[in-house]
Amino acid sequence: MDRYVQQRRGCWIDGEERSGGDWVPVIDPATEQAFAAITVADRALVDEAVQGAVHAQESWKRVPAAERGALLHALGESIAGEQEALSSLMVEEVGKPLRAARAEVRSASRLCHYFAEEMLRLKGELLPGACRREQVLVVREPVGTVAAITPFNYPLSNLVCKLAPALAVGCTVVAKPDEHTSLTALLLARLAGAVGYPQGTVQVVTGPGPETGRFLVEHPLPRLVAFTGSAQVGREILALNAARVRKSVLELGGNCPAIVCEDADWAAVLPDLVEQTFKNSGQYCYRISRIYVARSLFEAFLDQFVKHAATLRLGPPGDPDTDLGPLNNPGVLARVRAQIEQLVNQGGRLLLDGRQAARPPLGYYLGPTVIDGARIDPEHTREEIFGPVVIISPVSGVAEAVARANATPYGLAAYWFGRDLGAALDHAGDLEVGSLWINRIHPAYSHAPFGGVKQSGLGREKSHFGLEEFTEPKTIYLSY
Ligand code: NAD
């Protein structure tokens, strides 16, 4: 309790810590104990943060690109230098296993360095005019102050995906991290201040989504809302933005399928498939949650998949040997447990039941869960499962696999395994997703666009596409 009281963290506004009226405890999901508290920013505090960022925007957009790039490189170095502090925070507030937390820090650092360089390659256009001594310039301008709202699962890299390109092109940012995992964002803002970002360029307001998050989206001054989170909240944000005719970049949920064709070298990729299903305890958007396997391979595939999944170690996130830590909070745990229950009632056969896994006595743990979906109606597998659960079903050919893969409101990513590359590329056009991995699973690169179609969102992150989201083209008719 003492520690909880000692670690009270205010919002980060104009280079200072500021508290609101109320406090929300930050719970360690591995111990179920409060170890810190964050303040709840009310409408007035959110307004101060936004006004400060809008004021800072005026001078920040005039800072030469090379200087902005140098600062972003410095932030990338500072993030890497603070790897242990940032990772320990994520272990404690997310429940993320230490190895994964360190990997997230490295990825966030790389994103800063990438955008510091990519920003120098932003292109305009020079078009001919209709008469002599006239030309048309098209230049890219920063969109303005950005409201960046992020979820709990990747509290550092999800924020850096927005912060780095925004700062790179000359925008200022008001961040609203998830209320369960705000400490990481607060540390990041301090690091930005320490490397020399001017006051007001990086602001952080904390508090629950329906209060602080909503106040931020309802504020008239941000020019773009960059949001990562659930489709439900994404829709609410889009509706509020529609009223203001304001740009939104939305990275929402997924329900990602993997297709294993008859000619797949599936045994070779099995460990990667298992990892992409259960990493971060299944709490990430482009995890594999449904696998469609050629009927002739089905039994052998199921058997091997379950054997691999059963070797994953559930344990305290601070332990370097842990594969799966706890889920982040009791709400996610209850939701995923209810989904398991429902799938079983709808005909699913439990082959590995994560509810029965050996686990530490306290904490929101759930082990890897594998369900044979042969008898589940596809209608019941449309929704996202944000936890360590996978449904594996047999299919009679790739046409059925593709149809089942698309039978969801989401369209974030898909995975395809099969030796016939012609078939893979042919069906690539049929799969309704923003990203497709064929035959190998590797991380989403900084220089490759990431985002979804259908209800998985609008716009792209990473790459030059992700950078351009934070700019508006301006057309200048030049006569001389
Ligand atoms: P969530 O939508 O409940 O919360 C996300 C953020 O929005 C939090 O900061 C929350 O406080 C805030 N928020 C909640 N209600 C709000 C409101 N009314 N107005 C403004 N802000 C509000 O998301 P979650 O369930 O905690 O996160 C998991 C979801 O995020 C999953 O659906 C997952 O797939 C998705 N996600 C998507 C990506 C991607 O890149 N597509 C990446 C990570 C997570």
Task: Describe the structure using short key phrases.
binds nicotinamide-adenine-dinucleotide; globular; six-stranded mixed sheet; Aldehyde Dehydrogenase, Chain A, domain 1; Aldehyde Dehydrogenase, Chain A, domain 2; 480 residues; seven-stranded mixed sheet
What is the strand and helix layout of this fold?
Layout: H1 2-6, E1 8-9, E2 11-13, E3 16-18, E4 23-28, E5 33-39, H2 43-60, H3 65-81, H4 83-94, H5 98-118, E6 125-128, E7 134-142, E8 146-149, H6 157-169, E9 173-176, H7 182-195, E10 202-204, H8 209-218, E11 224-228, H9 231-244, E12 247-251, E13 256-260, H10 266-278, E14 288-294, H11 298-310, H12 330-345, E15 349-352, E16 369-372, E17 389-395, H13 398-406, E18 410-411, E19 413-417, H14 421-428, E20 435-438, E21 453-454, E22 457-458, H15 463-468, E23 471-479
Parallel strand pairs: 1-5, 8-9, 8-11, 9-10, 11-12, 13-14, 13-19, 14-17, 16-17, 19-20
Antiparallel strand pairs: 2-3, 4-5, 6-7, 7-23, 12-22, 15-16, 18-21
Bound molecules: nicotinamide-adenine-dinucleotide.
